[in-house]
Amino acid sequence: MATAGKVIRCKAAVAWEPNKPLVMEEIEVAPPQANEVRIKIVATGVCHTDLYHLFEGMHKDGFPVVLGHEGAGIVESVGTGVTEFQPGDKVIPLFISQCRECRFCKSPKTNQAADRYDVMALEETRLTCKGKKLLQFLGTSTFSEYTVLNQIAVAKIDPAAPLDKVCLLGCGVCTGFGAAVNTAKVEAGSTCAVFGLGAVGLAAVMGCKAAGAQRIIAVDINPEKFEKAKVFGATEFVNPKDHSRPISQVLAEMTDGGVDFSLECVGNVGVMRSALESCVKGWGVSVLVGWTDLQDFAARPIQLIAGRTWKGTLFGGFKGKDGVPEMVKAYLDKKVKLDEFITHNMTLDQVNDAVKLMKNGQCMLLFLG
């Protein structure tokens, strides 16, 4: 492309400081260096993890930053040493890389890599604005018209894939779906409970259905979400606000002692405990899916001594370069829903409106272009 090897000036939504609105800026995106890929972002979703960094985590060293990590785009140019990608390829940025060489990538037991990001905003960046370095959120920064990633953090996808739909596979849908299928390993004929019906929770419901669960109980304090959950496969609905007893007791009564599998998709330590205690003793499995790192979580030892398993998942257990293209194919084959997640189509200039909608419990798609 004509821009190859040159600095690109483009629009991006910059978070200059925590707990403040994003600012539309013209930024500079440097050419990709060795083993890097520069991508024109076509579409990106808004995920609660973006809001977590901006409004909850608010680590002072994590700003200024370009947020966004749930995107899809087209390769604009590549740096030296890149052989897997070429300009024009459709791709999805990955916030968990897959080098295929480290002990983690070679292990079937995890989807994490040796260079897994331990901070939410990487200092290594190709983005600048007004002479200042902009951190890249989770190494991706999809709230920008262009971004640069290492080739091990990019997945090539089917050229037939609609980028304005499959961008949702960059985080939320894979996270929830994989939590059920890969991490919990939901079994056919089982009973499941999904706590929280945002995009991740709805994807978890979809994963439970794909795995053949017989009963899928959707739990949320917003009853307006129940109809949408039914679209993805939920069979029953419980609003904790409708009960004076702990929700775990309500579910235990509904299921003859507890559910086989529970998935916490909120990122709330209290809900995590409720999800665990909702599992049947002996074999119940509860998975932490929602992201938070602000508080400790706790449970009584007897809950685990009695045979329950408590585990967590990151990106639904998918190895990015392998799993994301497979999920794209599943969508194209109509085995996975994506269109039904989209509630709003917006432009990058409307990013603060999108953030407000997300804070109010909406899931949406943010178009760039």
From TrEMBL:
The alphabetical list of record keywords is: Metal-binding, NAD, Oxidoreductase, Zinc
Domain Enoyl reductase (ER) positions: 17-366
**PROSITE patterns recorded for this chain?**
ADH_ZINC
The family this protein is said to belong to? Belongs to the zinc-containing alcohol dehydrogenase family.
Zinc is among the record's keywords: yes
Pfam families, per database record: ADH_N, ADH_zinc_N
* SUPFAM superfamilies assigned: GroES-like, NAD(P)-binding Rossmann-fold domains
One example GO MF annotation: zinc ion binding
Which species does the entry assign this protein to?
Fundulus heteroclitus
Q: Which protein is depicted?
A: Alcohol dehydrogenase 1
Q: What cofactor is needed?
A: Zn(2+)
Family annotation (Gene3D superfamilies): Medium-chain alcohol dehydrogenases, catalytic domain (3.90.180.10), NAD(P)-binding Rossmann-like Domain (3.40.50.720)
A GO cellular component entry from the record: cytosol
Give a yes or no for keyword Protein biosynthesis in this entry: no
List the GO biological process terms: formaldehyde catabolic process
Which InterPro entries does the entry link to?
A: ADH-like_C, ADH-like_N, ADH_Zn_CS, ER, GroES-like_sf, NAD(P)-bd_dom_sf
